[in-house]
Amino acid sequence: xxxxxxxxxxxxxxxxxxxxxxxxxxALTASADCAPKxxxxxxxxxxxxxxxxxxxxxxAFFGLSKEIDSVNRAxxxxxxxxxxxxxxxxxxxxxxxxxxxxxxxxxxFWNHSLSVGVIAKQLASNRDVKGSDVSSYFVAGxxxxxxxxxxxxxxxxxxxxxxxxxxxSGTPIYVAEKKLLTLNHCDVGAILAKEWHLPQELFCGxxxxxxxxxxxxxDIISMAIFAADQISHQIQQKDFKAQALPEVVEKWLGAPIExxxxxxxxxxxxxxxxxxxxxxx
Length: 281
What we know:
By secondary structure, this protein is mostly helical. It has a domain at 5-15 and 99-278: Hypothetical protein af1432. The protein is 67% helix and 0% strand. It has 17 helices and no strands. α2 packs antiparallel against α6 (80-95), α8 (131-143) crosses α14 (220-236) and α12 (185-195) runs antiparallel to α13. The mean pLDDT is 89.
């Protein structure tokens, strides 16, 4: 059964809104002149957000040499952009449904999402993306498929048909979604990102990670998520046939996808370190 755009808007409206503190964080960090003291003040007014951000900062994912005991110190050690991305991750993981009747395997879903985030972060580092921006690549990878969760939770029978179609025919899930539901998880992710006023780089990663046409600077993070998604499937599924990379993506990677995949060491170790991001419910 085709799903109308209006139905998706209603679906998104049923997802709990971000806490006011997270909206304030997004508003503050949208400005290049964001003052660290203002950001710290906003986060510290939300005890739950403060606790979760500090847990992430002190996790193995960051591997800091000393324990960080305040948001102010966290901003100093990991930077404003990273703190913004931590707040987004915490809020998103807490807002999304944790189960569904469509048969979408949530453990598999989050394992793949963590894998794409870790790989995108590594690809960005390999391409000399500055440290303060690398966290955006990780979070874009972590969130790139969340449209699947919304489909599976709000339209379980329809999405179960799409999952079955994909499995039985070998058709990519985003193609099966489009065929049966009119829209795919990229479309749904983009709607959610827009409604939640997520940063442009996250919006692009969620909306464009299955497209093959990339043209401008805004598409760099989308190219990274596209490549990371392919590499993740290639590493985790022995029989997976990777899409041919668009020339612009291969040029950005600086190598064919097989070579780029070889540049991702210790993926499971890094995923285990990143698992804290999906445990903070």
